[in-house]
Amino acid sequence: MKLYSVYILKCSDGSYYTGITNDIDRRLFEHQNGENITCYTYKIRPLSLVFCENFPDVNQAIDFEKQVKGWSRKKKEAIINDNWEKLKELSICKNDTTHTNYTKP
């Protein structure tokens, strides 16, 4: 059975890179060795793998990768730290202008 991995790399500048692959070992090798000079990670090596989740279905993996790419740094760090239950709390809007904080003038 082929598995598809969604992974997060921590880059030397402290940023995170999220990707998808069907061969995590090969892909990590490519990132670490700068196989693609146009890749985001090329100039910010060394890299470390901080998260990896496997999926049996490529469409599930693609959907999860897209979701994670849109997340804040704090949400990414929650799953990196295996703190999945924190995602709901981090999804709540805390802006003063949000409808939950609105008071009539």
TrEMBL record:
Q: Which organism is it from?
A: Pedobacter planticolens
Q: Which PROSITE patterns match?
A: GIY_YIG
In this chain the GIY-YIG domain maps to: 2-78
Under Pfam families, the record lists:
GIY-YIG
Q: What is this protein called?
A: GIY-YIG nuclease family protein
Query: Member of which family?
Result: Belongs to the UPF0213 family.
